[in-house]
Every structure is written in C-alpha cells, then in structure tokens.
Amino acid sequence: MESSPSAARALDSTGGPLMPGQKAIFAVACVVAGFLPVSVGYVPDEATRLVCGLAVTGALLAIALLARRNAAVHRYWEIPLAFFGMSLFILADRYVPGFLASQVLHSPPVAGNPLASTVPATVIIELDELMLTVVAVLLVVWISRSSLASVYVRWGRFGRAYVIGIAALVVFYVLTFGVLSHSRFMPVHGAVDFGRYLSLTPALFVAAAANGFLEELTFRGLLMSRLNIAFGPYLATTIQAAVFASWHVGVTYTASGLVFIVLFAFPLGLIGGYLTRSSGSIIPSTLFHAGADIPIYLGFLSYVP
C-alpha cells in the first residue's frame, strides 16, 4: 500500500503524531470542515451566501498557511489546504455552471434536471464542473509543491481494482435500463424505451464519467491523500467517505435522502477509497463511480426533450 509524497514529507516534519483523543477530536473537526463549504448553500440570502462562501474559503486557506508556519502542526497543514480546495470548488460551482447554462447556453435547469434543459447542455455543464474541480486541485497541488501522483492521478497498478471498476461500469449500464424504471429512489420521467436509452448512452457515459472523475479526484485523490498524514489508511478512508456522504445531504433526485446517503453515498465513498488504495490510482474508482452514476444521469436526462 503506497503512501503519498505528502505523507512521506510529513514524516520528516516537526511535530509528533496525534494521541488517540486528539485524533478523535481532529477526525470530527475534519468531517465538520468538509461539510462546512456545502452548508453555506443553506443560507437563504444570495448575497449573504456569497459572503459566507468567501469567508469559509478564505478561513480554510488562512488556517492552512498558519499551520505551515507552526512547527507543532506543520505536518498536518495540507489537510486544511485540501478543504480550502474543496471549498473553492463549491464556491465556483455555485455560480459558474448556472451562469453558463442560462446566459451562454440558454439552457437553464428544468424540473427534474438540476443541470440544464437539453442533453448537450447537461453534458457541457458537467464538463464545466469537472474543469472547476481540476483547477481547484491543481491550485492545491501547486501551493503544496506536490505532484499529481500525490493525489493518485496516475495509472497505478493494473489488477483487481481495475477489474472491479471495469466490471462495475458494464454491469451498472446493463442493469440500469431494467431497474431504474421500477426504482422509487431515482424515478425516470416518462417512457425510456430501449432505443432512447441507446441514443442517450454517449451523453450518459460522458456525464457520468465527468462526475465520477471530479468526485474521485476531490475525495479519494485530494482529501484522502492528505488525511493519510494524520490518520493512516483506514481512518482516512472512513473520514473521507463521511465527508463525501455529507455532500449529498439534501439531494433533490431522490425522495429518500437519508436512505440514499446511508446505503449509497457512504458505501460508495468506502469502495472508492478501497479501489484507490488497492491500485494507487483514482482510475478504477472513477470507473466504478461512473457506473453507479448512470442511473442518476438517466433520471436527469429523462426530463429533457
């Protein structure tokens, strides 16, 4: 099991490892910090929401830079830096895709599809969100003077994880058509016959792969690699899965939000963590994640002409 370059550098830094009690408190703090950027979205007034988003993002960056200068906590400074990158993405994602959909593509969201009102625009918006994620992660990598390999952006080891990821993608695609129309968690709007399913397949794969990659890059790549520094592989995997699940609080594409979080989002975070660690790459977890997202994006696209 490989550790990231950031973790290797941390071993040579000043400041000792956390005691069990300190580790438990820090773990809770990390879950809270991970949810904080998303919680800003619940602020009712848009102007206040923007101010809060900027404040949270700036505070996380300030904490990271202060920690870098403090010998006692220097080895952990890249953890708040990772949360800064995640908050920066949330801040940009709250405004850029909506502006792109309404003002540039003239395809604002419709009921049932939170991205856009046409299939091409939905794909473009998802690719735009991917670009915002990549920019945020690259900024964190640049500030920390690390490499893309430190966030598992590499081929890694081809083995069981790759087989699981590829098989999951195929199985989810094959089963989605027969299962989704009977699911109360992600209902399809109107009839989706086999011909329409085939016609939507390119858009499904692009949108699902883009979302799968951006979330794996964010949580398994950026966050988990930095949590390794303080928590080790198993607890780091659990914490990032908890943060990943918290980002799905209030999802609008299912009427059973709590069940979705407990039975889908949190286990998906754990599976993604396992596949990433097993292979040393986010590619297998991206394949698995993309497959799991196919039913969701079919639900979205069923609402557009």
UniProtKB/TrEMBL annotation:
The keyword Protease applies. The keyword Membrane applies. Residues 200-293 form the CAAX prenyl protease 2/Lysostaphin resistance protein A-like domain. InterPro entries: Rce1/LyrA-like_dom. Signal peptide: none annotated. One of its GO terms (biological process) is proteolysis. It comes from the Bacteria. The chain crosses the membrane at residues 24-42, 48-67, 130-149, 161-182, 194-214, 226-247, 253-275, 287-304. Keywords: Hydrolase, Membrane, Protease, Transmembrane, Transmembrane helix. One of its GO terms (molecular function) is endopeptidase activity. This is Membrane protease YdiL (CAAX protease family). It comes from Arthrobacter bambusae.
